Amino acid sequence: PATPTISWNNPANIVYGTPLSSTQLDATASVPGTFTYSPAAGTVLSVGNGQTLSVSFTPTDSTDYNSTTAQATINVVALSPPTLAAIANQTVAAGQSLTLTLQGSDPNGLALTYSASVDSLAYHLKTTLGLYEAGSFYTNYYGGGEQWVMGTAGWYYILPSGAFYHWSGSGLTGTLVAQLGAGYNANPSLLVNAGPGQGQASVSISGAQLTITPNSGFAGPLFVTATASDGYYTASQAFQLTVAASNAPPTLASIPNQTTTGQAFTVTLSGSDPNNYPLTFSAQSDTLAYGLERQYGFHSAGSYYTNWGGLNEKWFVDSASNWYFILPNGNLYLWNNGNLSACTQVASLAPSYYTDPTTLFNAQAGGGPATVSVSGTTLTVTPNSGFTGVFYVTVTVTNSQGSSASELFKVTVT
Predict the structure, then answer these.
(1) How many Cβ atoms from other residues are within 10 Å of residue 42's Cβ?
(2) 124 in Cβ contact with 180 (< 8 Å)
């Protein structure tokens, strides 16, 4: 009978520390029948990283007279993990889906597969801040209907509105961290027991294309983790997806106060829209009185308390209940609860505003001593010839849906 020849199904590379399967160790004969070497279940061939493994065997044919020897070498290597490019935070309008192309690579040339999960704001807060129940939620401890939880950086509390604060250490004051739903105040265990993968969105993967579809009616932040796998190792990247309500207004960057000797000047305007709607800018020149009223919200406290401090002054308050007084010459001061002569002057108005303070409270937009124009994102302000003093400019950004936001800045002409 013919001497059999043996061919080895030799895998090129085996990951260091990975058990070799019987499939990887199969050998077949070129004569009828198959010779198979199958290691016992759980067998691990112990070979160091970078070493080679030689396997040889001598099968015989069915007559037991002829034999041959086959040998194969297996290269044992340690694979490097894949990489996944960082993903910038994203914004999508409510009711819309987001599609991204994931960019991964593998130094070993192995094919990559992708997956993703979406976490809720509650789970993100729980994991990043290390939140837990400290034996009790200490409901209403400071009388605000708040619930208390502990984190690695100290105490946090949730107001009935769902506003989530990092406690300052005094009273019911702190730094706003996030806006949760009111249900987290009603049941704070939903926060400390929040689980992964419960974000209000669905995820689909097609090749390297990741598509995230927020649940109908949802608006707010979601936290997405994308993962690339080569079958042995993985790499992940996390990013925040903000789902903006369809009627969310644009934002306008604040504009510093300006000073000029009477010459025209320009300001570059900057705005953004959560839904990426196109933006247009406009502006108007306002009086000093209107700018002050818009900033402070002046109103009568029921009486002007004329001459209370002996300067023939008139008194009123702002929206934060701070007291102000105006003198007969129009000078306006913020009261510091002390000597009137040591108070801070806020502005110098015309004496007519002392005669009738309601003209300050009811000051109207426009009418400022300057002309303004906007070209694209460039605002040009030209003070009226001969004017010195203070006026304000109101800038407005409007998106294509008609939603807008405004900023006010002061101009001093010397």
Answers:
(1) 6
(2) no
Per the listing, tokens 């919200």 go with 297
Query: Which residues make Cβ contacts (< 8 Å) with residue 186, sequence separation at least 6?
Result: none
Residue 396, strand partner residues: 282, 406
Residues of the chain with pLDDT under 70: 1-79
Q: What is the enclosing helix (H) or strand (E) of 189?
A: helix 189-192
C-alpha dihedral (102, 108, 113, 117), degrees to nearest 10: -60
Report strand pairing: 323-326 vs 314-317: antiparallel
Tell me what pLDDT residue 94 has.
86
Interval 350-393: pLDDT, tens: 999 999 999 999 999 999 999 999 999 999 999 999 999 999 99
21: its two tokens: 């399967």
- Amino acid 29: pLDDT: 42
Question: 399 near 279, Cβ under 8 Å?
Answer: yes
* Residue type (1 letter), 226: A
Count CB atoms within 10 A of the CB of residue 57.
15
Q: Count the alpha carbons within 13 Å of 312 in the hemisphere toward its beta carbon.
A: 8
- What element of type H or E holds 127? helix 121-129
Tokens matching residue 193: 């027991």
**pLDDT for the residue numbered 59:** 52
Please state the φ and ψ torsions of residue 65, each to the nearest 5 degrees. Answer: -100, -35
- Tell me the CA end-to-end span of the chain in Å, nearest whole number: 114
287-346 pLDDT, tens digit per residue, is 999 999 999 999 999 999 999 999 999 999 999 899 999 999 999 999 998 899 899 999
DSSP secondary structure string for all residues of 293-325: HHHH--B--S---TTTTSS--EEEE-TT--EEE
